[in-house]
Batch of 4 targets.
Target 1
Amino acid sequence: MQIERLELRLLKLPLVQFFETSFSRVVEKQFLLVTLEGGGLTAYGECVADVDPYYSSETNDTAWHVISAFIAPRVLGVELAHPREVFPALKAIRGHNMAKAAVEMAAWDLYARQQGQPLTRVLGGTRDRIASGVSIGIQDSLDQLARKVEHELAAGYQRIKIKIKPGWDVAAVETVRARFGSVPLMVDANAAYTLADAAHLAALDRYGLTMIEQPLDYDDIADHAALQRQLATPICLDESIKSVHAAEQAIAAGACRIINIKPGRVGGYAESIRLHDLCARHGIPVWHGGMLESGIGRAANIHLATLENFSLPGDIAASQRYFNPDLIDPPIVVDADGTIAVPQEPGLGVSIVPDRIDRATLRRAVFVAPLASSAVSRGV
Ligand code: SMG
Ligand code: MG
């Protein structure tokens, strides 16, 4: 297969509701969308970088730069037998996993479309529905949190995740447990604590949380291992797992008992599959994380979450929680049993609405393969 054309867009969409983590509150989403063309087919990859370098060091601007200057020239017009060749082809570029993943995942979509198969099939998925969990941001009051939890449980979600930070942790968990009993519940700190908070975090042990996600620093492994020795609650790593190698080290150190997989964080689908398989070999359950994706990135996540060891509900929820309208129609829906049907059409398998993409576009650039380039300039 050959990628003949790569289009890069910066999109802006308002969020249906604000989303607050330990590091920021957001009311809109800006993200890059990669569109690839090859063999008469069009494929998509959503980049999970953000406007600011708060979740990760990458931003939309760094991803734009790296894709334009370094990734596009390495993939355009290159004969690829399989999309798993994309990540190794980018080895010279250090880091920038979100930029790499946006292009790599679009290449998998292109490949799947060429094969006439849904992505789940070419990725090696084993299920046609995935379990859906919901991530509820920090709210203005505990009452507001309780209302949100009530709403999401009524919608059927199989587990609740709440964001925590110092000053919004034990009381928030206490509120949910007092109001909703033993619902599957976890917390995500987005690196808001230090090892000096170990005794405070241990106060969460009595609430029977399924896990505490990324309590300590975004690139830390050693302190998480020390913390895990002091906590009964399993630690799940998110930000710290930037590669398969980091996961090997974290597992060997006992820094986590669960791992959250986001393909953008590790450089795409191929690395996500390697991470998934590593965790399976070590008896570490995984679940699929979320980055407030539009329906395009959400569909990509659904397909990956069909792999066997994604044994816990992911942060993959209904479109209507994020964007109205979404960039796809029909949107992603969660059924009353808290599951999402896996699209079965070729590639991502969702119907993308070009008008909505155009309306959301702030910036656009097109890159073409050397030969195709002369054809385009001749107006062919
Ligand atoms: O997509 O529902 C979603 C968001 C899930 O909580 C979520 N993501 O650390 O896991 C995480 C956060 C990162 C989002 S901040 C951009
Ligand atoms: Mg997280």
Note: The longest strand covers residues 5-20.
Target 2
Amino acid sequence: MATKQTKKSAPKAKKVAAKTAAKYGYFDDAKKEYVLTTPATPIKWCNYVGTLNFGGIVDTTGGTLICKGDPALNRITKYIAQMPCSDFKASTIYIRVKNAKGYTVFSPFVVPTLTKMKKWECHVGLSYMRWIAECEGLRTQVTIFVPTGSNTLLQDIQVTNLDKASKEVDIIPVYEFSHFEAEKQLTNADWVPQTMTLKGHWEKDGHVVLEQYAYMKRDFAVNYVTANCKVGSFDGDRRVFLGANEMGSWAAPLSLANKELSNSECDRGDNIAALMIHAGKIAAGKTFRTCTQLGQEQSLKVASKAIAKYRDLKNVDKAFDELAKFWEKYLSTIQVQTPDAAFNSMVNVHNPRQCHTTKNWSRYLSLYQLGYGTSRGIGYRDSSQDLMGVMSHMPEEALELALNLLSVQRPEGNAMHQYAPLALAEDNGNEANAGDSREKKGVLDENGNPAYADWYGDDHLWIVLTIANYLKETGNMDLLKKEVPFYEAGKKRAQREKGTVLEHLKRSLNFTRTHLGKHGLPLLGFADWNDCMNLPLGAESSFNTGLYAKALLEMMDICEALGDTKSVEMYKGWYEDVKKAFNDCAWDGKWWVRWFDKQGNAYGTNKAKYGKIYCNSQSWSVISGIATGDRAVMGMDSLNKLLNTANGVKSSTPGYRGFDPNVGGISTYPPGAKENGGIFLHTNPWVMIAETILGRGDKAFQYYSQINPAAKNTKLDEFESEPYCYPQNILGDEHKQFGMGRNAWLSGTSSWTYQAATQFIIGVRASFKGLIINPCIPSKWDGFKVTRKFRGATYEIEVKNPKHVCKGVAEMIVDGKKIDADVAPIFTKGVHKVVVTLG
Ligand code: GLC
């Protein structure tokens, strides 16, 4: 592997990389797909189908991890992410071809039979996966997706005979079930298998429905698998299907040597759903098509409607078309045409698509964040930020989640760190948790008081930005009057204290205003955004300072829109106070420090041995306007000099070189990894935004391009991660594997890079007065075009850059009329032409 080479052998490694350019796949922009041409990706790659309500992960070799409503509490399939790529993981399809001696068996996903294919493609699409595999003279096309709004995973299988002679073919799709409580499946091998149950229900016409549940769910939630056609037989017991007391394997199940499966039900044990579908003799050039369904409903009776619907292949086609229409509409909210193809492809398709994924799954379910146990869930800070990435596209869906977040805010104003969606829906009085802070519970300081906070200093502040975003996008100010409960553990929602949305926001700001440290900066709490720096209570955070100041600016905007000048003045006072405190204590000479511990020692200072400079204190002080003039520029320039690499901006440098209990989590990583001097990607868009505020479009765009995963498609032996979505982190240059990406899909990088690109580089953003158009672009661009839907109207915007500047609106013409500012009016309908000239 190129990245493991020593310095001496590096040139050789480079040659190898060049020869193997784009060897894993390519972007098909017209179809909005990434097409893999080999299953042997450097690490597991995946895609998402459906939503959190029903859906999950489909990997590129046919493994599926499906949940309904909550990955921890209602898991359906048993996908063990740590298994090697080549192993069966919860689902596959076997294709069986009759020959003179018996049968040849292969899987169109390659896994688990590991058959060599003549041709193999996996199309990573917008909420669907499609494989095209050629093997044994057959062309198999499989499409997996969840129809919009349904509780069903469809698997549309089409087998075409490419040979001249007819072939006798069987299709055997298989799913393996998980206990609904995902963690129990792994930790309890007594209760779980005793309760896992699978039954086969034959219908008169030869169809079968396999019903599966853990016994206690029999009357409430059952899983089912069925096909649109008759089946010859089935197996529900893994031991029977694999054969010889499981000496048979997933790669070669012994039962496939027999014409029929055993119709095994499973009264306890490992539940699977294997169907024997006899396609019969497929004539030369002909196609056999079947569609399987995996679903969950309260009962089979309730499921019968969906079962009947998707047994009709016309409805399967219709559902697939509807999914495409959903995406067409979603993506049409913002479409750009710039001179940079990789930027266009990311901004028009893959980035907004990833935002839809993070909106659904927060940090709950990925191949890295495995969704076991309820100590994770929907993260307060994470989802507050994710929502800003979908706010222009689906504000009402975003609001629904934002209201859930507000409902786990404490009456004091700070917030619970996470909530479990199913527990929230059940109103069980215990739906939220305080996050990792519990790990330090019971640790006392020198006076016998708790040494660590049980709250995070940033969580509650993010939601102010999110709600402001919603209000600006929709203009629905009535939301502020809506009553939402606060979180009081142990009480049912109806018994909890309530407050209006406006009151919730006020309490957020008030909490921070009343939790300032000795320099007058907001307290860190257990941690700020960087949840790996855990200093004892009393520590102050520059990041929380920037976020608090930005939240105050947003609140001033809201109060102004409400005509409440008194509150505007009050929050302005708070803003000036914290700005002054920050400027009085946090300047280190060339950059802003990152934290002060309770004794007043600075972190992120040139005097320190490790962690001399941190990225976030530079970017957030600019974003919030508390850094101005030379210091703002100098902080960003120091960041550029000390933290930037060809693969992105590092979060700090140099990394700690061993575990230091005084700083906590950050030092559990080797230098160059994750928060400890790694390129923690989430921080990079903040750098882009800060640069656009300083008017430096060339720099902002460089920061954008150097982390663009699409641009890494020819460097995948180094990057390793999916090129069609942002990973959470890339190893930094202190690490031997510099450039390697990990933790794909669920990262705040998605929302923020999308905001940076669309609202700050392209420069089109919603405000209470209208649509602001104030780009900050590379000076070499002649201009660009963008279509933006806003409050019911469509804005067709053309930006011209005759003088090749980065920023500065010289003229704005809306529907032929000159406008005096950089804000296009609110129209509520129609198509409107906007021409902006920079200069
Ligand atoms: C992870 C956490 C997120 C945190 C970030 C930085 O992504 O999910 O909440 O802000 O790490 O530490």
Note: The radius of gyration is 28 Å.
Target 3
Amino acid sequence: MQDLIERAARDIAGSTYAIALTGAGISVESGIPPFRGKGGLWEKIDPMEFAHIDSFLRDPEKVWNVLIKEMKGVVDEAKPNDAHTGLADLERMGKLKTIITQNVDGLHQVAGNTDVIEFHGNFAWQRCMDCGGKIETSEIDLSEIPPRCACGGIYRPDCVFFGEMIPPDYMRRSQQAASLCDIMLVLGTSAVVQPAAYMPVVAKENGAKVIEINPENTPLTGRISDYIILGRGGEVMNGIIAELEKLLDA
Ligand code: NAD
Ligand code: ZN
């Protein structure tokens, strides 16, 4: 693994426009379970069923009880881990321009990254399905499920459910960053949720190097990505930052 970490540090040192695409795996070491992979929610429930907009519309009480309440408990407690702070260090070193994240936990911003495209929205806010009024998730009253706005409408997370469209502005900005970058770090995503999984393809088609960091291979491995560093996000990012510091000091 060390030789690939050194290779990634050299590639990043030589780049002028690096970006990252992140997924649920980057927050695993912060205690937030991913959907797929080992320990994923998938082992307990079918996220396609519970995180699909049709399920929410059919039975908001069930989706609140099984998915959203649990998610709120976990996200409220979560803090950035070494993978998040590593990406924040890369930005501070002038080596990372943008993060496209599929995560809704807000941890990249807490770690200090300033240009984060939240492709699937943010769990920090809830939106009333009738009047559109917003309230912070931390302020929501869970004594009644599903929680309701003063107008009587049901609150839903301000996230993109499966079956919903990506906000056009996020889509446009992500495609732009993916087509301009010369390196895309793909960290902690199973790369199966579309259209996010298409961004590495856009990067590759425009001549970028695509570097995966993931303990498991993905559908991008060996086809779209130039190489994969098989390891946990935190340890790999710590290694890359240490090597990069040596290169930039030299
Ligand atoms: P995913 O759950 O489909 O896949 C997780 C990936 O992370 C797997 O490939 C797994 O091998 C990898 N992984 C596991 N541990 C890791 C570690 N320590 N370091 C690096 N990688 C690790 O995730 P996805 O591709 O992001 O798709 C799931 C969808 O669910 C996303 O669209 C996202 O919106 C949503 N989701 C978000 C959160 C969150 O905000 N933290 C959590 C669960 C699901
Ligand atoms: Zn309302």
Note: The chain has a mean pLDDT of 94.
Target 4
Amino acid sequence: MTKKRVGVLISGRGSNLGALIEACKAPDYPARIVLVVSNVPSVQGLLRAEAALIPALTINHKDYASREEFDAALDKVLTEAGVELLCNAGFMRLHTENFVTRWRDHHLNTHPSLLPAFRGLHTHARVLDEGAKITGCTVHFVRPEMDTGPIVAQAAVQVLPGDTPESLAARVLDAEHRLYPHALRLVASGAVHVEGEHVVGITQIGDQAPLFSPPLDEAL
Ligand code: GRF
């Protein structure tokens, strides 16, 4: 099996990067990480990459006069490393349209909500403010507008009474750590692809039970 060459973009802690690194250790996993790039110096994610002996570097956006120049520098190192699939994992910069076009349908992002609900920042606080009963996370292909693009996979997470943004964030993050490697496997293996702005290809799914929150037996 030829493993797809993956680049990962981070801005901080890099726990999703950690989940992808773990997944890539499986011999039958269809991808391997060949480069990690952070736009913020000295973040924890860079240490995770170094510990896994993955080439990692910082391209500090503050060193560039414009978003275009920053994205051009990013594209250069990714191209030179032979990256075929790009994964944003807690990467906190918006890309230029040129960059998005260059990586179109080869570029994934994880977002901590069930898109298209709760795009943008402070998702968990907003979920709690709205009184939503179910939230979750989404892995999607990147498009120019923030947190939009064809959805590859989603996981649902119940909002529990007494949840704080922090407690909810921790459970959603745990779901992301399982969802992102799953979604990357689907894309890297060629099991799914984009057709007319929808991700298609999965013809058979396992458990089809809907998730109820509160659970059905407590609802009466
Ligand atoms: C994740 O919840 C991601 O969806 C959001 O920021 C968080 C990044 O966490 N954009 P980490 O850096 O992967 O630990």
Note: Residues 165-188 form the longest helix (24 residues).
